[in-house]
Q: What sequence folds into this?
């Protein structure tokens, strides 16, 4: 890595400025970064689509899980490009199999849930650090950049979700309104075709977001190193060196008598005593050499010796004692004393520590119980103590369609009363039977009836509920005769009525607990 | 609880008369079912309109047998049938007829238009401008046609079956509310089920050169005067007061329902009872039940109401809204 070759301007930036730089980098190399991601992921995605045609979302989920693997390719490309190495898309692709397998297990397990993935990836991939060394390095690097890296991930996830919704909405909007189709929401989300479309939308969103996410994280990393290692200062020094070298070379080549004369004059002038020179007397007098002078072609050892020499010189060890008056507030003195007194006793600190550990254990216990509970519920096993109370079924209505359906409103002996009324008013007798039957269906059979249900609908609903048993057949006969009498104003024969009364006992026993307590 | 009071206005129908009518209706239904496969409900709704002396607006995408249904119905009864293909340049006189100067006799002669028929198929009615559509208003409501200021009686029975296409709305003229209200029912034809479509394809392709479904298999089973008798019988079926109230309550509920920008008028209540009577006859009943009313409510009301802008934006369909309305209107219990 040669930082003099870097293609971006290196200077200390704040974190969000660094993310901006990452976005610019991603835009600059978008085709290559996207291409690498797609080349690595598409074959796996298509294969999974073929293997699980019934559950297409599995393919998108797997690709999402494998993201760190694909991102390592993009990271290499971005890092090589930033330091202006002659790397090509093809080179990276050729090296891909080796790179994809590297640290795969750890990347997909322990490191996968990390919220600062794009930032951490550089430490593992570019610095080749592992284990404790990596952790130490990350601790140093993340000290101030971790929150930005976490926010970067959160924003990345959000943008990915927005893109998925946007793609789906676009597909929805492209349906011509003239088609006038009505699609039930639940049918839609359970449809395998819709799952397939969703999985493709998810894949596309991941492919589009990945370059920006990765480059922004990488840029954050570069910025953090710039700050820590003073890359900008190093670059400035290197610039100075190269400039100085150029000037020396230039002087050697083009030294004309005039310039030589001018420099000589200047050199002479610089030796003349001035005020400034007088102030620095101590400095110059104590040093044989000019410390500020640039010494060309130093070996590293010589440079180090010179550095130590300079650091030990008086310039860096100028100790001055100054005295002045300072106002000392008496209150602040008291506060300081109180602080010393209010220091926590050791036993209390231990107690708090013990309690904190207990709470930690308790919280972990709750988390473990929750996980076990969810796992059991997903397997369809009911946990007796943790089950929520079942919703109580709504009480059956006391009146429907303007008819009193409560059991209290019916006589004890329905058939006896109906027979008694038959002679006077057949319609009244049938009305009682129909009402009693409806009351039984609503209370004993828990048939959910509404005020808008017609007689025919009541029969159909009961048939569905009872799966066409003999009671439903009986109810249909009763309803038919009731409708004929009520709406058709036609007479029902005594024989039909008697047959109904005889059968009634079979289906609606009067001494059942449901219709037991009836009043006349 | 109300007491039993037989209605006094209903004409007594003999059992024989009713059985004969019922058999005739079943025969017509079977005949049409022969050629129009998988559209039983649609056929029933069209027959309801025929028995109730109403007009039908049929809506469906091309190729679902709208025209075939009308042809089959016309073939069933040995009456007159004419078809008008509505186009943007169709004039009102092309529908009703016009006066023509005869050079020989030096007199104006009335040339009657295709509206002088028993069954009139107005194909793609929304392709003609409003004035041409309005030419049908008089004949549909008054059963008479005025040409050059002279009224002529339309044939009896007279029924208009208009078709329109829900897609390809470009260059069409939506029917005005007054015109829509003249149609007793609006029938929506949907795609047939798989097995029914297989049967249909088999019928069309076996031993036939052209794609058309022909109506040759249908025999004329009913005469024009028999249809008039059937209509008279339908009109005299027993309807209880509570059923009348139920029909009116449904129509009135559409006016107060917040989903609708405008509800159905009294003509809807009238059409609903007439349609329910015909439905009862189709079901083989001597009297009308709330079930018959509820069954016919959606076809009778769907073209008479319109959704509010908010509901349309939300993607609500008229049938959906009517279904919700019917679930709220209390059914009668005597």
A:
């Amino acid at each position: 890595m040669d930082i003099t070759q870097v293609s971006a301007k290196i200077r200390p930036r704040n974190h969000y400025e660094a993310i901006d730089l990452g976005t610019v980098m991603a835009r600059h190399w978008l085709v290559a970064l996207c291409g690498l991601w797609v080349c690595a992921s598409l074959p796996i995605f298509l294969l999974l689509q073929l293997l699980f045609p019934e559950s297409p979302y599995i393919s998108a989920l797997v690709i999402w899980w494998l993201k760190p693997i694909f991102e390592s390719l993009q990271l290499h490309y971005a890092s090589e490009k930033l330091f202006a190495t002659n790397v090509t898309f093809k080179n990276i692709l050729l090296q891909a199999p080796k790179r994809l397998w590297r640290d795969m297990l750890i990347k997909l397990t322990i490191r996968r849930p990390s919220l600062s993935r794009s930032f951490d990836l550089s430490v593992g991939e570019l610095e080749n650090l592992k284990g404790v060394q990596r952790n130490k390095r990350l601790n140093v690097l993340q000290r101030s950049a971790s929150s930005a890296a976490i926010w970067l991930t959160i924003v990345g996830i959000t943008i990915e979700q927005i893109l998925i919704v946007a793609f789906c909405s676009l597909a929805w909007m492209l349906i011509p309104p003239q088609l006038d189709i009505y699609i039930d929401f639940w049918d839609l989300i359970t449809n395998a075709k819709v799952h397939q479309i969703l999985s493709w939308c998810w894949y596309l969103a991941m492919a589009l977001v990945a370059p920006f996410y990765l480059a922004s994280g990488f840029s954050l990393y570069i910025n953090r190193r710039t700050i820590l290692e003073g890359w900008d200062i190093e670059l400035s020094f290197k610039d100075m060196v190269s400039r100085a070298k150029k000037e020396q070379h230039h002087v050697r080549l083009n030294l004309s008598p005039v310039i030589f004369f001018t420099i000589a004059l200047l050199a002479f002038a610089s030796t003349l005593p001035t005020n400034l020179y007088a102030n620095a007397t101590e400095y110059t007098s104590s040093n044989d050499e000019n410390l500020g002078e640039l010494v060309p072609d130093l070996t590293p050892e010589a440079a180090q010796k010179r550095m130590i020499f300079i650091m030990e010189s008086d310039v860096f060890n100028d100790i001055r004692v100054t005295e002045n008056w300072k106002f000392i507030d008496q209150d602040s003195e008291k506060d300081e004393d109180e602080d010393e007194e209010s220091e926590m006793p050791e036993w209390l600190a231990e107690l708090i520590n013990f309690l904190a550990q207990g709470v930690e254990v308790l919280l972990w216990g709750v988390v473990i119980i929750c996980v076990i509970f969810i796992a059991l519920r997903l397997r369809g096993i009911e946990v007796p103590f943790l089950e929520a109370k079942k919703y109580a079924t709504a009480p059956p209505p006391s009146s429907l369609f303007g008819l009193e359906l409560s059991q209290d409103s019916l006589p004890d002996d329905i058939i006896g009363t109906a027979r008694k009324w038959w002679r006077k008013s057949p319609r009244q007798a049938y009305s009682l039977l129909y009402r009693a039957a409806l009351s039984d269906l609503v209370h004993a059979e828990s048939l959910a009836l509404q005020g808008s249900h017609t007689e025919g609908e009541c029969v159909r609903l009961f048939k569905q509920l009872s799966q066409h048993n003999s009671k439903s057949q009986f109810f249909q006969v009763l309803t038919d005769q009731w409708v004929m009498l009520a709406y058709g104003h036609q007479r029902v024969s005594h024989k039909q009525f008697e047959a109904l009364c005889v059968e009634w006992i079979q289906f609606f026993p009067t001494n059942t607990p449901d219709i037991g307590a009836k009043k006349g | 609880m109300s007491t039993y009071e037989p209605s006094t206005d209903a004409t007594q129908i003999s059992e024989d008369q009713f059985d004969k009518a019922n058999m005739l209706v079943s025969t017509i239904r079977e005949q049409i079912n022969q050629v129009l496969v998988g559209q039983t409900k649609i056929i029933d709704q069209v027959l309801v309109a025929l028995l109730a002396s109403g007009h039908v607006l049929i809506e469906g995408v091309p190729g679902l047998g709208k025209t075939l249904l009308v042809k089959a119905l016309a073939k069933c009864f040995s009456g007159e049938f004419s078809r008008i293909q509505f186009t943007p340049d169709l004039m009102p006189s092309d529908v009703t007829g016009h006066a023509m100067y005869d050079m020989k006799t030096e007199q104006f002669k009335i040339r009657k238009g295709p509206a002088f028929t028993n069954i009139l198929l107005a194909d793609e009615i929304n392709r003609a401008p409003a004035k041409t559509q309005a030419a049908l208003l008089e004949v549909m409501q008054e059963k008479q046609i005025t040409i050059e200021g002279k009224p002529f009686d339309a044939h009896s029975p007279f029924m208009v079956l208009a078709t329109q296409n829900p897609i390809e709305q470009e260059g069409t003229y939506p029917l005005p509310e007054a015109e829509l209200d003249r149609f007793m029912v609006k029938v929506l034809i949907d795609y047939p089920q798989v097995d029914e479509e297989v049967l249909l394809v088999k019928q069309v392709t076996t031993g036939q050169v052209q794609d058309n479904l022909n109506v040759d298999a249908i025999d004329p089973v009913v005469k024009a005067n028999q249809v008039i008798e059937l209509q008279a019988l339908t009109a005299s079926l027993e309807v209880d007061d509570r059923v009348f109230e139920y029909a009116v309550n449904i129509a009135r509920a559409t006016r107060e329902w917040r989903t609708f920008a405008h509800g159905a008028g009294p003509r809807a209540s009238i059409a609903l009872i007439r349609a329910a009577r015909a439905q009862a006859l189709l079901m083989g009943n001597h009297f009308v039940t709330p079930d018959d009313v509820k069954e016919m409510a959606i076809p009778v009301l769907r073209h008479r109401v319109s959704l509010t802008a908010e509901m349309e934006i939300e993607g609500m369909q008229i049938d959906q809204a009517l279904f919700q309305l019917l679930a709220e209107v209390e059914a009668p219990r005597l």
Notes: Residues 1-10 of chain B have pLDDT under 50 and may be disordered. Residues 15-35 of chain B form the longest helix (21 residues).
